């Protein structure tokens, strides 16, 4: 434990303040320390007697920071004996060095006393030993110390300007300067005195800057200059209350109070000695407008008095910095400086109220008047400019000022990044070759920062016209006066200095903008003449010195500069990233790779990732020898940048990859460097199939994103195959796919086709390769998800397929009977139409709806000769004809509903085109579009139809159709009735049959049977249903006569069969139809598939008939009372239908009879059920008779298995 005691040698009453901080380590060197509250470390023991002593204890070495006001002290060093080797007062601190070489910095505030001592020893158990070290010296007054101490405490709270080691160094410098100027005071310092007096101050600031440069370059220099300027601006306190207010409100007062009173000469000479023109402008522009102008006036007055070459150089630097100044709104120290200056303004000043925050705004502190003041300053020191380099600089400054602040447009376009980089490279190259330039020895990053300021002059306002005119005149004068000697210097063999380069560059820009100024500005004759003369002078000067700008034999440092800008994130660093990513010459150098590694986050933009990929592919596939490991490293870095992008940005990259390198993606060019893709692919998709859930969707999308950019084609095809082959995965995989809308890419190599990449993958991977109906269903569901994606939470998705392209790619080419995919295409067609019905936009317009309608009509036309086609040409069953008809109706409905989207002329032309095309097809196909053509074209039907129907000439027209000769009117009529229920009802209403003429009814009935036989085999189930309803309607209207024969009646039944008359007539009619079909003249009409088809139609009708019978029996009017029960009649009907079904079975080949056999068993079940439910009415004899009769009918059925089954079923009654 270390004990420190401070003892006064004389009996004095007073106060001692001690502030200390403790480190966790021993202090070996100077550095910033954290202060702690005095109450934490002081344990005072005060004795008023032989002397005053204060002691405190700490767990570590104490360090007391700061310095007292010791202006009366004589500095020196005293040596003592004992544990303490030496103690003394250095330049700006008191140092105590003990025998064990542990250093302690001491700061003392004490009451009046002539002598004091610092005692130090180790605390040993059981005793305390003190070995005093006497330090003599006078101490300041109590009042001064109190004020200073309180100011210090306030400064602790302020935080910005704490008293610390750097402040003590600065304080020491001023104290030494004050001692050197003694007996005069620094407030009276003249310009000529600075060389002798200013050295300690300059050295103190340089010491501060060098000590802190490793962590805070220029920060302490700026802070010190602010303190000094604030001291200059501070008015002297006039009263104690004024002092109290200052230390409470002014953060600079405490530290400024340590500095002696100084004048502007000290400030300006210090700035000049430090060559701190940039800092001077920063601080100057931070001041309120009034103060700013006043300070600049004082500066110019100082510079123009006894002007030396150093004054000229500093003045030109200040002028140049003024033009480059852009302000720093985020600097809190400048804001405090500005607010301090506000407080010291007179209350009448318009800017006396300090702003809430610092703003570098032209309206608050306008630059234009300041530049005008500097221009006048140049005129005043013109004769003092003797050095050619300074003359170059003066002319360059003047040219730049006039160019930027007078001639340029109000909103000039920023030069391109490549031009900007080239200008930086030129400037820095000149600096590198100019050993006299202050930036010659600086690091590249510092050079780039300064060069950026040099080449980026901008203006928010314009110089007053008077200043511009004065500038033009002054420019002419200087060119006349200095032109020849400058030309001689510029054309000499000496190397290009920055001043000479800048002169030529600035005059070139000035000349270009001056020409534009002459062309666009309205000037008086005298003004125009003067400006024209100036333009000629400048042009002539440049012509004679053109070699300076043309001779650019500098080293190529653009790459290093661009990388430095990126590394330091300087102005326009993102533009440099684009140049970095695009420049092939730089790629794969060690510096290039290191820059990419260190600044990977900056390259996480889609365009940059694409640029990098393009560069890597071009360079790696060229003849340059690049280590494979380095290429792999760079590719890995780029893919990491890609992986960190958002999903929309990943899509931008994917889109760019597809457009640049096609479906093979990066693997097409970089396959040799992308090892392990197949393993990654298999691993990823194994994981996908095992965890197909929305919870893992984001992770799955991220995994697929990397695969899809490496090899889009393989990845997407794999996903398509999995979606079809793996049951239930289609939705999850579709969600992943729809997260990449870039897959809708259309390759340039397929410019003749508009097929998207996604469609190509679907067609090549799975289309036409389905092996089971399950796979077809999965494919349909996948298409649905890709058309109308399910939107998961947090992942943006977009449709990868459009309805029109689905129809063009998967439907339209396959709408033919002889194409295997026609059935699936129809399913896709109806699914697409129904799923897209909710779309607001009329999408059908984009896929040519009229050709689509005609394709469906062609498909329907194929059904008219269906059974005449070879089996291999019938890839779609006749049952699917109903689906085709439904799609056609739905399509026509959609087109009609959006007819207004066509121009009237286009609509008429399209209808006419379709009508002409339909003339090539069967007439029934055109009739299906009756409502579509309504109002434009009449319905064209065979002429024979007019013989049996009252057709209106306004709506119908006759055409000669082959195959419709005399007597075929009823056939044409029946074919019309098959088309739709509405046309069937219309045909029925227009039918001409005289019911009162039995012969006509008989002939109609025979003709109807013949027509039914001709039409039935080519009917779809729905068409046959229309005919079934039509037949029932004809029977009910007694237009159709169907006599009921007694061939399956043993005895005349004494029953009420009237409720079942239509059912019995329909059953016998169907029997007659099949007797006709199985006759010698018709039995070879149909192939086996055709017979299967008509049997299914018959079974459908008989099933409907049985349903009707059951309905009549259960809810008919005859079922209201017991005496009117229809059970016997129903049983009779069942036996008749059973006999008719077995009769038909007996006429047909066994292989087509399975549906009828099943129907016969169902009829027997119905009979048995009804018979057992009503036992009272069935006598035993009747049951036996009916059983024997039914068995006799069933005996004629083959094969044996069916016959035995039927007989067994009957025996169970």
Would you kindly provide a brief summary of this structure?
With 1213 residues, the protein is mainly alpha-helical.
Radius of gyration: 53 Å
Give the domain tally: 5
Query: Assembly type of the shown chains?
Result: single chain
What is the helical fraction, as a range of percent? Answer: 55-70%
SS strand fraction: 5-15%
Number of strands: 15
Head-to-tail CA distance between termini: 120 Å
Mean pLDDT: 80
Q: Based on Cα principal axes, name the global outline.
A: elongated
Main sheet overview: 5 strands, antiparallel
Please tally the helical runs, counting DSSP H or I stretches of 4 or more residues: 52
Which structural class should the secondary elements be placed in? mainly alpha
- The residue ranges in which pLDDT falls below 50 over 5 or more consecutive positions are 1-160, 347-365
Organism: Carlito syrichta
GO cellular component, one term: SMN complex
InterPro entries: GEMIN4 (IPR033265)
Protein name: Gem-associated protein 4
Description:
The protein contains 52 helices and 15 strands. The protein is mostly helical and 1213 residues long. It folds into five domains: 161-344, no CATH class; 385-557; 661-915; 938-1041, no CATH class; 1050-1116 and 1124-1212. Strands 1, 4, 11, 12 and 13 form a five-stranded antiparallel beta sheet that branches. β6 and β7 form a beta hairpin. α25 (606-620) runs parallel beside α27 (647-661), α48 runs parallel beside α50 and α49 runs antiparallel to α50. It starts with a strand and ends with a helix. Mean pLDDT is 80; it is low at 1-160 and 347-365.
């Amino acid at each position: 434990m270390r004990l420190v005691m401070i003892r006064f040698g004389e009996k004095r009453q007073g106060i001692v303040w001690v502030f200390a901080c403790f480190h966790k380590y021993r202090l070996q060197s100077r550095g910033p320390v954290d202060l702690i509250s005095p109450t934490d470390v002081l344990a005072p023991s005060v004795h008023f007697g032989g002397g005053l002593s204060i002691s405190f204890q700490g767990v570590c070495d104490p360090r007391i920071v700061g310095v007292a006001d010791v202006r009366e002290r004589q500095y020196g060093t005293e040596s003592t004996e004992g544990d303490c080797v030496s103690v003394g007062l250095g330049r700006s601190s008191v140092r105590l060095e003990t025998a064990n070489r542990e250093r302690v910095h001491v700061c003392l505030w004490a009451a009046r006393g002539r002598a004091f001592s610092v005692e130090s020893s180790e605390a040993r158990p059981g005793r305390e030993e003190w070995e005093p070290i006497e330090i003599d010296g006078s101490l300041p007054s109590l009042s001064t110390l109190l004020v200073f101490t309180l100011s210090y405490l306030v400064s602790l709270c302020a935080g910005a300007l704490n008293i610390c080691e750097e402040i003590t160094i600065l304080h020491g410098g001023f104290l030494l300067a004050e001692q050197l100027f003694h007996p005069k005071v620094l407030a009276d310092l003249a310009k000529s005195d600075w060389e002798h007096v200013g050295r300690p101050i300059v050295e103190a600031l340089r010491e501060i800057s060098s000590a802190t440069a490793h962590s805070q370059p220029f920060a302490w220099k700026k802070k010190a200059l602010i303190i000094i300027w604030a001291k200059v601006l501070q008015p002297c306190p006039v009263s104690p209350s004024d002092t109290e207010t200052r230390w409470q409100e002014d953060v600079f007062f405490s530290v400024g109070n340590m500095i002696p009173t100084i004048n502007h000469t000290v400030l300006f000479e210090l700035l000049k000695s430090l060559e701190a023109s940039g800092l001077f402008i920063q601080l100057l522009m931070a001041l309120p407008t009034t103060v700013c102008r006043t300070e600049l006036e004082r500066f110019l007055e100082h510079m123009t008095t006894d002007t030396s070459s150093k004054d000229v150089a500093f003045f030109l630097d200040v002028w140049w910095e003024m033009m480059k100044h852009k302000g720093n709104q985020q600097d809190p120290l400048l804001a405090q400086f500005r607010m301090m200056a506000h407080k010291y303004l007179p209350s009448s000043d318009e800017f006396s109220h300090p702003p809430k925050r610092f703003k570098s705004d032209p309206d608050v502190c306008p630059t234009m008047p300041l530049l005008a003041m500097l221009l006048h300053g140049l005129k005043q020191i013109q004769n003092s400019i003797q050095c050619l380099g300074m003359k170059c600089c003066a002319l360059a400054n003047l040219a730049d000022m006039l160019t930027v602040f007078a001639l340029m447009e109000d909103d000039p376009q920023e030069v391109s990044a490549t031009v900007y980089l080239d200008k930086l490279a030129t400037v820095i190259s000149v600096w590198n070759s100019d050993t006299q330039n202050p930036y010659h020895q600086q690091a590249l990053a510092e050079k780039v920062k300064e060069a950026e300021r040099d080449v980026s002059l901008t203006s928010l306002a314009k110089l007053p016209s008077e200043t511009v005119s004065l500038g033009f005149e002054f420019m002419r004068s200087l060119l006349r006066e200095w032109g020849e000697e400058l030309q001689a210097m510029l054309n000499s063999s000496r190397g290009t200095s920055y001043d000479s380069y800048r002169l030529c560059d600035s005059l070139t820009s000035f000349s270009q903008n001056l020409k534009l100024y002459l062309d666009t500005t309205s000037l008086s004759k005298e003004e125009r003449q003067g400006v024209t003369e100036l333009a000629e002078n400048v042009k002539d000067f440049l012509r004679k010195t053109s070699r300076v700008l043309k001779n650019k034999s500098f080293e190529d440092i653009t790459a290093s500069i661009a990388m430095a800008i990126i590394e330091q994130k300087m102005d326009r660093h993102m533009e440099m990233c684009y140049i970095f990513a695009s420049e092939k010459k730089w790629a794969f150098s060690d510096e290039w790779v290191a820059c990419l590694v260190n600044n990977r986050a900056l390259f996480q933009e889609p365009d940059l990732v694409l640029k990098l990929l393009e560069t890597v592919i071009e360079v790696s596939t060229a003849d340059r020898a690049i280590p494979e490991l380095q290429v792999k490293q760079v590719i890995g870095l780029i893919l990491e940048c890609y992986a960190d992008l958002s999903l929309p940005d990943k899509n931008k990259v994917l889109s760019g990859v597809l457009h640049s390198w096609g479906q093979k993606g990066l693997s097409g060019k970089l396959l040799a460097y992308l090892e392990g893709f197949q393993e990654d692919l298999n691993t990823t998709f194994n994981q996908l199939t095992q965890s197909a859930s929305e919870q893992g969707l984001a992770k799955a999308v991220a995994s697929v994103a990397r695969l899809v950019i490496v090899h889009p084609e393989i990845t997407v095809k794999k996903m398509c195959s999995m979606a079809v082959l793996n049951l239930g995965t289609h939705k999850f995989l579709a969600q992943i796919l729809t997260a990449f809308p870039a897959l809708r890419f259309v390759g340039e190599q397929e410019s003749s086709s508009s097929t998207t990449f996604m469609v190509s993958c679907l067609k090549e991977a799975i289309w036409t390769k389905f092996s089971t109906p399950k796979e077809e269903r999965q494919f349909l569901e996948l298409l649905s998800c890709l058309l109308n994606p399910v939107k998961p939470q947090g992942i943006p998705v977009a449709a990868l397929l459009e309805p029109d392209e689905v129809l063009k790619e998967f439907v339209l080419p396959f709408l033919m009977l002889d194409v295997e995919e026609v059935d699936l295409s129809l399913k896709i067609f109806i699914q697409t139409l129904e799923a897209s019905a909710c779309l607001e936009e009329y999408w059908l317009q984009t896929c040519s709806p009229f050709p689509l309608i005609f394709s469906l009509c062609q498909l329907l036309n194929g059904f008219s000769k269906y059974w005449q086609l070879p089996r291999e040409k019938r890839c779609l069953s006749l049952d699917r004809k109903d689906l085709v008809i439904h799609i056609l109706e739905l399509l026509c409905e959609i087109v009609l509903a959006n007819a207004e989207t066509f121009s009237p002329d286009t609509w008429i032309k399209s209808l006419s085109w379709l009508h002409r095309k339909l003339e090539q097809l069967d007439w029934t196909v055109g009739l299906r579009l009756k409502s579509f053509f309504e109002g434009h074209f009449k319905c064209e039907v065979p002429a024979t139809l007019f013989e049996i129907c009252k057709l209106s000439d306004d709506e119908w027209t006759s055409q000669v159709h082959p195959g419709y000769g005399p007597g075929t009117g009823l056939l044409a009529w029946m074919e019309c009735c098959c088309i739709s229920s509405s046309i069937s009802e219309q045909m029925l209403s227009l039918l001409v049959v005289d019911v009162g003429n039995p012969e006509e009814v008989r002939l109609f009935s025979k003709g109807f049977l013949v027509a039914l036989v001709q039409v039935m085999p080519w009917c779809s189930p729905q068409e046959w249903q229309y005919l079934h309803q039509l037949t029932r309607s004809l029977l009910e209207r007694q237009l159709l006569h169907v006599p009921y024969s007694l061939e399956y009646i043993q005895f005349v039944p004494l029953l009420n069969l009237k409720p079942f008359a239509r059912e019995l007539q329909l059953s016998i009619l169907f029997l007659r139809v099949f007797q006709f079909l199985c006759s010698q003249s018709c039995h070879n009409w149909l192939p086996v598939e055709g017979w299967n088809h008509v049997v299914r139609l018959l079974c459908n009708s008989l099933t409907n008939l049985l349903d009707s019978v059951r309905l009549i029996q259960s809810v008919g009017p005859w079922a209201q009372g017991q005496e009117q029960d229809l059970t016997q009649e129903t049983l009779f009907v069942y036996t008749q239908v059973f006999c008719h079904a077995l009769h038909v079975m007996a006429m047909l080949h066994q292989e087509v009879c399975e549906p009828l056999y099943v129907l016969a068993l169902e009829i027997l079940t119905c009979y048995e059920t009804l018979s057992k439910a009503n036992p009272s009415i069935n006598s035993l004899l009747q049951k036996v008779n009916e059983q024997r009769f039914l068995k006799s009918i069933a005996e004629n059925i083959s094969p044996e298995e069916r016959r035995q089954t039927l007989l067994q079923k009957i025996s169970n009654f």
